[in-house]
Structure formats: structure tokens, C-alpha cells
Amino acid sequence: MKTLVIYFSAEKATTARVAKDAAQLLGAQLYEIKPEIPYTAADLNWRNPLARCNREFFGRKQVPTTGGIENFADYERVLIGFPIWYGCAPLVVSSFCKGYDWTGKTVAAFATSGGSGIGKTAEKLRPFISGGELLNAKLVHSGAELAAWAKELP
Where in the sequence is the domain holding 129, given as residue range(s)? Predict the structure, then answer.
């Protein structure tokens, strides 16, 4: 099964590390979601009500991304990872997902942080995975843990 690991990583780059390690262990392709305007530390300071992350979330703003995945149709299984923001995937992730046809793909989401846990992350992401089967979401701490979980998926 041809697998793609997609990820968005913020300031600490934890998600990037986990995604890269898992892709290597799985022999999967890797793709990084990048916002057109990169986030700064100030943008990510959720304690500041005027920070970009708060304005995007509370304003339900789409976050334009750069680049794209070549031959997306060729992948059967997609792992999509991100840090948890406000109990769900960052809006940059859902904005990215809207641009693709997920028909026939098996999708699993993973998160690398989440003070509130994984919660209803899969349910909240599901509307943006149009046509695909989003199996579940899991909080992971390493690429090895993600790879082991991915191997158990259908």
C-alpha cells in the first residue's frame, strides 16, 4: 500500500521529527504543509488574544498554503499530523485538506501535542477529508510509535 505522511509542524518542530522518523520506518513519502505566510513565535502566542493563531481560530479563517502534492491520487493511505490547537487540527491543516480529493484513501490523523488530549480531533477533521475514510486520530510521541500504529491500520 503506497503511503504518504503529511504534516504541519509549528515552533518546536516536534511533529516534523515524528513525521520524518515514521516516514523513514514505513518507507513512505513525506510532505510538509507550509502556510503562505510562515508563523512566527509571536503568531503562536495563544496567550495574546491578538496573536495570529487566535485571530485565525476565532475568525474561522482559511490559511492559504504553498506548494502541492504531486500525484496525490497515487497514494492509498495517508497519515496526517499536526500539533493540537484549540482541541483540533490547526486551520492551516483543514485549509490544506480542502484542496484535495480524498476519495478512496484511508486516512489516519496523528497529533504530537495536546494538553487537552486528542479529544474529537478526528470528528472535527472528517468534513475536510472529502470522500476519504478517516479512521481515527491518535496522540503519538515518536516516529516509532506512529509507524507501529500505522502498520496496524487497515
Answer: 3-34+65-152
CB 78 within 8 A of CB 105: yes
- Sole residue written with cell 510509535: 145
148 lies in some domain = yes
Rounded Cα gap, residues 104 and 95, in angstroms: 20
Residues 73 and 79 sit within 8 Å (Cβ to Cβ) = no
Residue 118 identity (one-letter amino acid): I
End-to-end CA distance of the chain: 10
Summarised one tens digit per residue, pLDDT across range 116-136 is 678 788 999 999 998 999 998
Q: Tell me the pLDDT tens digit for each residue of 43-81.
A: 888 888 888 888 888 888 789 999 999 999 999 999 999
Number of domains in the chain: 1
Tell me, what DSSP letter sits at residue 88?
A: B
What does the pLDDT look like over 22-50, one tens digit per residue? Answer: 999 999 999 999 999 999 888 888 888 88
